[in-house]
């Protein structure tokens, strides 16, 4: 059985070319309004490693404070005072969580150089869902992914989004796909690729992204009938040819998620690809993993 992975080193392999299992964006990148992150060298990422001089700046974005659901009934964020939370998270898709002396949940991938919640509303895990839709372009022969250009930073991305309160992840996958691309597909038919921690530039020591990614590869007839329409959160939507360069430039951990999706297609052929199509996908996976072409 080819089971989906919880937080595993493999999520970080194949794209960024850095130490497996280490978050990098969460230590070296930040949205423009974040203060500068406190430096965290590779060997001091794990919480077990002693780092007596570690004093990360504390940041919570004004938009998060304004959405405190204990004050604002339409708000999507937790209260800033964690003791007001009905329940402090004790586990996430990454497993059991540890907490600091103030009772705040700690990032399962280790230090980020930033305390507080930053732009994330929830203390601990903030859940997203990522529908990965691929096809092979019959004219160019390229593997393509249905991608949106994000408004926040202009990067191309899987048309994913946050799981709404009380929503099932399977519902989020189809809803986000529809809202961001105009496409309706039953993501229940998709193959589960990953559930767990995501290396995202918004992550902090106390709040981080976790996602559920599902993959659906569609044939040319279905793809041709699809009318693409960028939603509110997207600047543009298109079938993005997955060159190694385009894949590496995808948002957050999306390159790793897409590589996993394509590699899974080679192992199991769940969507019944022809020999020729499998060869195309195999070349791409080799290139994404920096392996020489066969
Ligand atoms: C995005 C997802 C992404 C997640 C973690 C969400 O805001 O919509 O596509 O996987 O953040 O980076």
Mean pLDDT across every amino acid position: 91
Helix content: 10-25%
Class computed from helices, strands and strand pairing: alpha+beta
Principal-axis shape: globular
The H-and-E topology, N to C, reads as HEHEEEEEEEHEEHEHHH
The main pleated sheet reads as: 7 strands, mixed
The unique ligands bound to this protein are: beta-D-glucopyranose
Number of helix segments? 7
Question: What are the segments in which pLDDT stays under 50 over at least 5 consecutive residues?
Answer: 1-10
Strand-residue fraction?
15-25%
Total number of β-strand segments?
A: 11
Radius of gyration: 19 Å
How far do the termini sit from each other?
28 Å
Account of the 3D structure:
It is a single chain. With 294 residues, this protein is of the alpha+beta class. It has helices at 25-28, 62-66, 169-181, 220-225, 244-248, 254-268, 275-288, and strands spanning 58-60, 91-92, 95-96, 115-118, 124-136, 143-150, 156-157, 161-162, 191-197, 207-217, 234-241. The strands form three sheets. Strands 5, 6, 7, 8, 9, 10 and 11 form a seven-stranded mixed β-sheet that branches. It has a two-stranded parallel ribbon with strand order 1-4. α6 (254-268) runs antiparallel to α7. The longest helix is centred in the C-terminal third of the chain and has 15 residues, at 254-268. The protein is globular and about 55 Å long. The two termini are 28 Å apart. Beta-D-glucopyranose binds next to β5 and β10. Residues 128, 130, 157-158, 160-161, 198, 200, 209, 211, 252 line the site of beta-D-glucopyranose (BGC).
């Amino acid at each position: 059985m080819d089971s989906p992975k919880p937080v595993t080193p493999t999520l970080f392999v194949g794209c960024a070319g850095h130490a497996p299992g280490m978050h990098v964006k969460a230590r070296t990148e930040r949205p423009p309004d974040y203060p500068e992150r406190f430096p965290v060298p590779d060997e001091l990422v794990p919480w077990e490693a002693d780092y007596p001089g570690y004093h990360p700046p504390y940041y919570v974005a004004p938009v998060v404070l304004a959405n405190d659901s204990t004050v604002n009934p339409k708000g999507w964020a937790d209260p800033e005072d964690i003791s007001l939370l009905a329940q402090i998270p004790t586990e996430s898709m990454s497993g059991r969580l540890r907490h600091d002396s103030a009772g705040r949940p700690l990032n399962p991938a280790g230090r980020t150089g930033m305390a507080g919640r930053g732009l994330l509303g929830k203390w601990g895990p903030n859940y997203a869902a990522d529908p990965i839709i691929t096809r092979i372009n019959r004219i160019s022969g390229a593997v393509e992914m249905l991608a949106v250009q994000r408004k926040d930073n202009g990067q191309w991305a899987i048309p994913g989004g946050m799981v709404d309160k009380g929503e099932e992840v399977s519902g989020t996958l189809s809803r986000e796909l529809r809202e961001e691309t105009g496409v309706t597909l039953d993501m229940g038919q998709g193959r589960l690729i990953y559930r767990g921690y995501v290396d995202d530039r918004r992550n902090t020591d106390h709040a981080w992204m976790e996602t559920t990614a599902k993959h659906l590869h569609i044939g040319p007839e279905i793809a041709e009938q699809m009318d693409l329409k960028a939603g509110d959160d997207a600047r543009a939507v298109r079938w993005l040819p997955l060159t190694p360069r385009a894949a590496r430039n995808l948002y957050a951990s999306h390159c790793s998620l897409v590589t996993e999706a394509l590699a899974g297609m080679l192992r199991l052929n769940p969507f019944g690809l022809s020999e020729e199509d499998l060869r195309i996908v195999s070349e791409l996976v080799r290139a994404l993993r920096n392996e020489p072409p066969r």
